[in-house]
Design brief:
By secondary structure, this protein is an alpha/beta fold. It contains five helices and five strands; from the N terminus they run βαβαβαβαβα. The protein has a five-stranded parallel beta sheet, with helices on both faces.
Length: 128
């Protein structure tokens, strides 16, 4: 399984990667420090498509919301579940992002055990 994590915070990326390895050592995590880097990775057909994209909203440059819109416009990328992974707890924003095509809206956990739990729940769900 391949996961693309788009997050400008290197510490958050490392915490996520460690938790993913604890959930399943065969998970391959790809990190992108911003939305532009993520879209470059996704649009390079030499790269394997991720099974899931975890996307931070608040990043410098292209926002997570704009990145989500670009992903969902592309027929090749549209089926990939995008989990918005952010510090925001805005219920209205969550509903708007789901309308844009986000599969889930999750507040970033603070503690490593919470990241592990969140990942194990999301990855354990039945996906279309």
């Amino acid at each position: 399984m391949n996961i693309l994590l788009v997050d400008d915070d290197a510490d958050d990326r490392n915490l996520f990667f460690e938790a993913a390895g604890q959930v399943d050592q065969t998970i391959k995590c790809i990190g992108a420090a911003n939305a532009d880097e993520a879209l470059l990775y996704l649009n390079d057909t030499a790269n394997p498509l991720p099974d899931f994209i975890f996307l931070d909203l608040r990043m410098p440059g292209l926002s997570g919301r704009q990145c989500l819109a670009e992903i969902k416009k592309d027929a090749r990328l549209e089926p990939i579940p995008v989990i918005v992974y952010t510090t925001s707890r805005d219920v209205r924003e969550s509903a708007e992002l789901k309308q844009l095509g986000a599969a889930h809206f999750m507040s970033k956990p603070v503690f490593p055990d919470d990241v592990y739990y969140m990942l194990s729940v999301v990855l354990g769900e039945k996906w279309k």
